[in-house]
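I wish you would study the pair of lines that follows with an eye to the fold:

===
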Amino acid sequence: MNNAKRVILIVLDGFGAGALTDAHLYGDEASHTIDNTARAVGGLDVPFLSSLGLGLIEGIETIEKTAHPLAAYGRMKEASIGKDTSTGHWEMSGIILDKPFATFPHGFPAEMMDRFVKETGYGWLSGMPASGTEVIAMFGEEHLRTRKLIVYTSADSVFQIAAHEDVVSLKELYRVSEKARRFLYDYNVCRVIARPFTGGQGAFKRTRMRKDWTIAPPGITVLDRLASNGVPVVAIGKVDDIFSHRGISLAEQTKDDVYAIHRIMASMKCMAEGLIFANLNDLDTLYGHRNDAVGYARQLKLVDERLREVSLAMTDRDVLLITADHGCDPTTPSTDHSREYAPLLVYSKGRPVEAGINLGTRETFADVGATIAEIFGLSTQRIGISFLREMSLLSW
C-alpha cells in the first residue's frame, strides 16, 4: 500500500462555475449554477468544499474564501462543442469533439419516428423536447390506456423512452431501448435513455432504474490506456455507460449520491492502486433539470458532508480530484444543461505542498486525463496538459 498510487476522480454532475465565453451561442449567458443557486436560497452550506478552496476559484463569488485552502483549485473550459454528459466526461479522458451530436429542438423527424415504430413495434407519444417529469404527467394516462411509449428529447443529444413499469416491464423497456440504439447511430444521437416510472395520474414518479446506451468514445481514452497498462479502473454511477463499458475493470451502478459515495469508500478499502472514477448525478437529474434551487442546495450540503468522509479515508498515496462535466443552473428558465466552466479541486493530504496553489483557468477538461496519465507513469497524451508540475507532485 505504501508504494501504491490511487486517484479518486469525482464528477459532480451539473455543478457549473459560471458561463463560458461562448455560452451565448447556447442560450446560457446568464447561467452560473453555483452562484445563482446560492443567491436564490440565501447561501450554500458547503464547509468542506469551501475549505478546499472552492470560493477562491475565479468567477465564484458566493462561497466563503478561505485563507488557508487545503487543495489546489482552478476552473476548466470545455474545448469540445456541446454541453452534454458524454462530451464532458470524454473530454476529461482526452477526447475533444469538434462536431456536435445531433439535437432536435423542434422534435424528432417523422422519418426517425417511423423507423422507431418499425424497429420496436410500439407506437409513441410526444416526440418533442420536454422535462421528464412534465412529459410523463402530460402523457402518462394516455400511455396507460394505449401502451404507446412516451418518447422525448432535451437540449442534449438524447432519445428518451419512458414507460410505466406496470405497462411495460423493465426487461421489455430495455429491449426496446437497445433496438432504438442500433438504428439511432444513423442519426448521430449520443444517448438512448430508458426512463421507467410508476404511480397513477397526478402522482407519476420516475424510478431509479434508468439505463443509458451511449455512442462509444471515438478514440483512445485515458481509461483505455490505464487498462492496457494493467492499472485497475473502477467506474461508479453512470461512468460505465458513458464510456460504453470500455477501459473499465469493475462497474458499480448506484441508486443515488449517498450510495455512490458509499461505493467509493468501499472501493478505497479493497483497491490498493488505480483509478476510482465516480459520477454523482443527483444534483443534475433531481434538482438542476427540475429548476429546484432549494433541493439543489440541500443535496449539495449532503454531498459536501459525504465528501469530507472520503477525504478522511484517504491515504498519503491518494489524490482526490473534484470537478464537473457541465452546468445545470436550476434558477434559469431552461431545464437543460448549461455551458459553464467546471470547477477543479485537487487534494492530496500526503503532499500538503500543493495546498493553496491556484491552477488558474485550464484550456480544456482534458488536463484531468493528462494529469491522471502522468500520475500512473504513462507517456504524455496528445491532448491536455498535466498540472502535476504546478502542484510540485512530480516525485509523488
